[in-house]
Amino acid sequence: MGKKSIIPFGPQHPVLPEPIHLDLVVEDEVVLEATPQIGFIHRGLERLVQTKDYNQFIYVAERICGICAFGHSMGYAETIERLMGVEVPKRAEYLRVIWHELSRVHSHILWLGLAADAFGHEALFMHCWRLRERVLDLFEKTTGGRVIFSVVKVGGVQRDIDKSMLSEFLHVLDGIKDEYEQICKAFLDEPSVRNRTYGVGVIPHEEALSLSMVGPFARASAVNYDVRMLGNGAYGDLSDFRPILSDNCDCYARMEVRAAEVPQSIEIIRELASKIPDGDIAVPVKGSPAIGSEACNVLEQPRGECYYFAKGNGTKYLDRMRMRTPTSQNLAGMAVALKGCDVADVNMIVLTIDPCISCTER
Amino acid sequence: MGVFKLGKMTFGSLFKKPETVLYPVQTKEQPAGLKGHIELDAKACILCGMCDRSCATGCITVDKQARTWSIDRFQCVQCGYCITVCPKKCLSMDPNYAPASTVHASDVVEVPEQDKPVKAEKVQATEKPAEKPKAAEREPEPAKAAETAVEKTRDDVLEAKIALLDEEKAAKVRAALAAR
Ligand code: SF4
Ligand code: SF4
Q1: Distance A230 CA to ligand 2 centre (A)
Q2: Which of the two ends of chain B, N or C, has the fewest CB atoms closer than 10 A to its terminal CB?
């Protein structure tokens, strides 16, 4: 029997794009316990809601995280619209969902690239980022930004996407889909990838439920929950939406689920682009949220359910803005997955859970 | 073996044109709607200060006395909110990025006198009350215009604001004001 020792993992580590610290209690090569610790990039953005008015805060909200930027501005705007009882035009709802699904595509491709890089497949990493670049180009053409878009506003969206641009969307996404499927096949069928991820970092279905895990990581443990199936906004007009599930509960299942979500998002964009109604893209919003009014909202971010809560106080400044981000739900699951794994598997497990620390700490 | 799984894609890339460009010799085409930098049409500006008050990063400064409109390009995040609030629609987003600079200075634009000064005056007058709450929320800063009349109404607004706070906070704010 070896002696117990503690290995610090992060906040600076090659597999971590963002800073999180893990205290790994190890005996021989086996992790007995892992304690995640966050707090390295807290910026106090929720507090800013008291000094920026509800229109200005949208630009703060989208800076919470560079990957889910669009999702945060959309989730925040929807919360404020509920708070003030604003009805958003249908076309704006469709445009929001199209952009949001597009950001899911870029987030998942980015993650696949990072995962491939961690496995040592540098060429795959380059291919993934080449594909992602095309998605960012679409964003740049339609919103004017590549990472931060500033295109959502309370009451609708700032810019429209015309018919020819929508067909360009579909054309580009078709090209991406083909290449993406080749990349996924090459990556997921690769024996070295399978050997390192099969049966590793298992989060049993019951654990995933009791720890309230969300997003693709919960769905990989057969938790049938995806906010999109609640049918908020334009999601309600989809003819059919079924969450992608897997019941293997291991690292491989998590990669498979995420990989399959990209074609699903592309299908959603295709369907909405064919159904998008004509009309206004925004309604004017006047006044301030009433004293004591409260509203909440959920949105499926690339990493899972994100919950928003806002409280008005009769002025244009909000009393409180609270977000519960997907990673804060999933960190507990990560600690479970790390228990009993080999030290060499830690980076695989962390990567397949893909913690987004900027969102978590705000 | 998975070695040749990507062979087709990698082999194909040998005959395609490169995905990257040789910057700075070549540059990528910029889409028309790119968020480059904020441009002011000085002839149309009425110096109402709406953009100054609504910018979340506080990078625009409108000086009515000197008739200048200035922007700190290092602070601007190209959100475009100022464009949506400008009553004269004289702000626009230029698709070219602001050039790099070695000194941290604001770009200052001189705003020429309007053809109809009467109208401009009127807008300024109606805008005044909206400016006061901002002065009250901000960190204590030296009042720009020391006109007594303006000062007095500003005090009233402050009083009204303080009255909304709870007692402990109100006492603190009063103490801070007295110290100023
Ligand atoms: S809001 Fe428009 S008109 Fe008013 S000061 Fe700014 S640029 Fe000039
Ligand atoms: S674009 Fe945004 S940050 Fe820049 S000046 Fe306008 S409001 Fe301020």
Answers
A1: 36
A2: N
Question: Which ligand 1 atom sits closest to the C-alpha of B49?
Answer: 5
Q: Could you say which DSSP state residue A31 is in?
A: E
Total Cβ atoms within 10 A of residue A244: 16
Q: Are A317 and A54 in contact (CB under 8 A)?
A: yes
Instruction: Give the span between the Cα atoms of B56 and B82, in whole angstroms.
Output: 9
ipTM metric: 0.77
Chain B: residue whose CA lies nearest to A56:
B56
Q: Which amino acid is at B125?
A: A
CB A326 within 8 A of CB A319: no
Q: How far apart, in whole angstroms, are the C-alpha atoms of residue A90 and residue A237?
A: 10
Residue nearest to atom 6 of ligand 2 (CA): B82
Domains located in chain A, CATH noted: 43-328 (1.10.645.10)
Q: Give the integer Cα–Cα distance in Å for A280 and A277.
A: 10
The whole-angstrom separation of Cα A170 and Cα A336 is 40
Left, alpha or beta for B93 (phi > 0: left; psi -120 to 50: alpha)? Answer: beta
- Taking the CA atoms of residue A162, residue A168, residue A172 and residue A178 in that order, the dihedral angle to the nearest 10 degrees is 110
Q: Which residues of B touch A179 (CB under 8 A)?
A: 9
DSSP E strand boundaries for chain A = 4-9, 21-27, 30-37, 152-153, 156-157, 294-301, 304-312, 318-324
Q: What is the pLDDT along chain A (362 residues), one digit of tens a residue?
A: 668 888 888 788 777 777 888 888 888 888 888 888 888 888 888 888 888 888 888 888 888 888 888 889 999 999 999 888 888 888 898 999 999 999 999 889 988 888 888 877 788 888 888 888 888 888 888 888 888 888 888 888 888 888 888 888 888 888 888 888 888 887 888 777 888 888 787 888 888 888 888 888 888 888 888 888 887 877 877 778 888 888 888 888 888 888 888 888 998 888 888 888 888 888 888 888 888 888 889 988 888 888 999 888 888 888 888 888 888 888 888 888 888 888 888 888 888 777 788 888 87
Encoding tokens for residue A273? 């682009």
HSE-up of A24 (CA within 13 Å, CB side)?
A: 25
With contacts defined as CB-CB under 8 Å, which chain B residues touch A178? none
CB A131 within 8 A of CB A109: yes
The kind and range of the H/E element at A210 are helix A205-210
Q: Residue B83 CA: which ligand 2 atom is closest?
A: 6
Which DSSP category does A282 fall into? Answer: B
Q: Are strands A152-153 and A30-37 parallel, antiparallel or unpaired?
A: unpaired
Cβ-contact A357, A64 below 8 angstroms:
no
Helix, strand, coil fractions of chain B, as percent rounded to 5? 40, 10, 50
